[in-house]
Structure formats: structure tokens, C-alpha cells
Amino acid sequence: MKESDLFVPIKEYLEKANYTVRAEVKNCDITATKDDELIIIELKLSINIQLLIQATDRQRITDSVYVAIPKSAIKNRKRWQGIKHILRRLELGLLLVDSENIENPIEIVFHPIKFQKKKISKRRRAVLKEIENRSANLNTGGINRKKIVTAYKENAIQIAIYLQHFGSTTPKNLRKLNCGPKTLSILYNNFYGWFERIEHGIYGITIKGETVLKEFPDLVKKYQKLIK
Questions:
Q1: For all residues of the chain together, what is the average pLDDT?
Q2: Residue 145: is its pLDDT beyond 60?
Q3: What is the phi/psi pair of residue 158, to 5°?
Q4: Of 40, 49, 167, 207, which has the highest C-beta tally within 10 A?
Q5: Torsional sign, CA 15, 19, 24, 29
Q6: How high is the pLDDT of residue 131?
Q7: Is residue 141 one of the residues assigned to a domain?
Q8: 121 and 163, same domain (yes or no)
């Protein structure tokens, strides 16, 4: 089993409860939002110190932080009781994922107790803004060493799709197509090497940009539908 195998059952469980679920937002494995509520879930195959470090760090962003592990990881009853005690002392919630239980794969062992220390509001705003600016769930929680599709990258992909379709044009025209307020800076900075300046104020897509779009067929399909 991989950490990413825990993602789908948790995602489906939360979405049934009407949460908006996103993966890999600002280093958080899973985020779930509903109205003003923000839940963060960290995934691991077993309880270890790295998981506790990550989870307690997320408490600076929100009160509702859970750790999620496979139910199969529970083997020593005495040790398990000690682990639950530590998690409660750290005011973390605990989820178990049972891949063999098709009907009810998620068990909530306990919810987090409200964390009393001051949150870092700047980080919370950054997480919520990233969630808001992502149009869909393009990542899988728990996967390492894989490029993450951030809101910035999705915006750049959208611009590349429109340049490929319409040809070279101005940032102003792209903004009229709802490419967003960062259009000019994305084109000018050209972080990914997907764009080129044809002449003053006119930008086009590079061969690299056209090639990379093949890696994002879902986004290409989505934005092509928006082209009128």
C-alpha cells in the first residue's frame, strides 16, 4: 500500500459530506472546506515522528487537523493505546482507512480537540487562496516526487491553451478571455518557458509550451470548452 492509496476513500467520504476536497495544497496532503470550515488531513502508512511534526505544524493553520493511517497498521494493542494517547494530547484527530471494507472504509477514531495556540493567519489565508484559485482537484494526496499543479501553474496552462487556439495576442485580450489578473506577469516572467514575446506587447506559445499541454488533457478539454 502507498500513502496515495489512502486519498481516494477519504476524498469520497468527505465529498459525500459536501466538503470541497483538494490534494497537496501548500504541503498539506488533503484539505477539505465547507463554508468557513477548513480541515487538513495528513497521510502516512504508520504513526511516526515525521507525521506528528507535520500534523502539529498544520495546527498553526486550522483547529481541525487529522492524521490518517491504514487500519492494517494497528498490530500491537498496547502500543496502539499509547499512540492514541499521544494524538489526544497533541489535540489531533485520527482516521483509519480500511481498504477491505467497501461499504465503510473510513473510521473516525476521534475528532481533534480545539487547539488553543494562536494560528498563523497568513498561512491560513495562503492555503484558502490556493484552494479558491484551483478550478479542480488535479493532484493526488500522499504522492511525493511528482510535480504539483498549483493555481499558478493551472493559470499558465490556461494561457498556453488560449495562445495555441487563438495565436499570438496581447495580455489584455487574454484577460478579456478570463485568464486572470496575473496574465501579464505570467507571460513576462515566463517561469516555465512556455511563452515568447513576438513583438512589443504581443506574446505567443513556444514549442515547449505546445508539447507540455499533452501532459494535461483534462485541463485542455476543460478550457477548450470555454472558448467561444
A1: 90
A2: no
A3: -60, -45
A4: 40
A5: negative
A6: 87
A7: no
A8: no
How many whole angstroms separate alpha carbon 171 and alpha carbon 108? 49
In a domain, 124, yes or no: yes
> Which of the four pLDDT bands, split at 50, 70 and 90, describes residue 99?
confident
47 plus 74 within the same structural domain: yes
Residue the block writes with cell 471494507:
101
Query: Given the C-alpha cell 472558448, which residue does it identify?
Result: 227
Residue 199: how many CA atoms within 13 Å on its side-chain side?
A: 2
Nearest to 12 by CA among 23, 2, 24, 1: 23
CA-CA-CA-CA torsion sign (157, 159, 163, 168): negative
Residue 205's domain comprises 151-226
Taking a C-beta distance cutoff of 8 angstroms, is the pair 54, 64 a contact?
no
Predicted confidence (pLDDT) at residue 102 exceeds the cutoff of 90: no
Tell me the backbone φ, ψ of residue 62, rounded to 5 degrees.
-150, 155
Question: Is 46 within a domain?
Answer: yes
CATH number at residue 34: 3.40.1350
Angle, helices 151-166/217-226, rounded to nearest 10 degrees: 60
Verify that 180 and 94 share a domain, yes or no: no
Task: Report d(CA 228, CA 162) in Å as an integer.
Answer: 11
